[in-house]
Design brief:
With 141 residues, this protein is α+β, with helices and mostly antiparallel strands. The protein has one helix and ten strands; from the N terminus they run αββββββββββ. The longest helix has 25 residues.
Length: 141
């Protein structure tokens, strides 16, 4: 009496194909798992802003990651700014656009030290309300 179970004629090729598929899929799945690791977060910053538009002062604080744009609106003025790191750890770059109504008035780019004030004043010809913008950028943990 034999207790060995012989595989049927179609089972052996299927098992061989299954085994070959696993051998080929193994490196692919391994490479996916290597690339699926979390990417380090971009540096975050707290930006303290003081916006004076002809006597109306707004002083919010925004939290942004490097490269993200933030907007601020006061009266007819709108400010769009982006904070970027520079090659040195003590400097940051502030780039953006200043709008009066729908028109772009200025496209400033400011380089400043971390925790120091960067300021700009804009006066549109024929307008009585200037824009005074001061920002202090601080890194967040």
């Amino acid at each position: 009496m034999s207790l060995q179970c012989a595989m049927s004629g179609t089972s052996r090729p299927r098992a061989g194909r299954w085994f070959a598929t696993l051998l080929m899929a193994g490196p692919f799945v391994a490479s996916l798992s290597i690339h699926a690791e979390p990417i380090a977060d971009a540096p975050s910053f707290a930006v303290a802003i003081e916006l004076d538009t002809g006597g109306k002062i707004v002083a919010p604080q925004v939290f942004v990651k490097t490269g993200e744009q933030f907007d601020l609106v006061s009266a007819d003025w709108r400010v769009e700014m982006t904070v970027r790191k520079t090659n040195t750890s003590s400097d940051v770059l502030l780039a953006g656009k200043l709008f009066k109504g729908l028109s772009v008035v200025s496209t400033p780019t400011l380089i400043t030290k971390v925790n120091e004030t960067a300021a700009i004043k804009v006066q549109v010809e024929g307008s009585c309300d200037p824009l005074n913008l001061a920002m202090v950028v601080s890194p967040t943990p």
